[in-house]
Amino acid sequence: MDWNTVWSLIDPKLLIVVAVCWVLGIIIKKTPHVPDWSIVYIVTAVAVILTVWIIGWGPQAIIQGVLAGAFAVYGNQMVKQAKKGAEE
After folding, report:
1. Which domain of life is it from (predicted)?
2. CA distances (Å), 38 to each of 25, 31, 34, 55, 88, in order?
3. Which of 36, 46, 69, 88 has the most crowded Cβ, counting Cβ within 10 A?
């Protein structure tokens, strides 16, 4: 699946959720005593909560929140891997 397709599935008014989740993930990563495996779950939970707050409760909000959280984590990983590849 092309990530542009996933990007087109995210409601444009939720781009702020993606940005907040990206920054939150970076902050959590630098926080001691927070295991790396838990970051994706924390970011996803926050994305769902913010999405429900913005568009209201419903299945669409859950789906949009998961997509926003996933896209934030994916974007962060893509940047990290690109930097790592450029260094090699």
Report:
1. Bacteria
2. 10, 12, 7, 26, 28
3. 69
* Contact between 21 and 74 (Cβ < 8 Å): no
Residue 82, C-beta contacts closer than 8 angstroms, at least 6 positions apart: none
Q: Residue 12 gets which letter from DSSP?
A: G
Compute the chain's Rg from CA coordinates. Answer: 14
Instruction: Report pTM.
Output: 0.77
Say how far apart CA 70 and CA 59 lie, in whole Å.
17
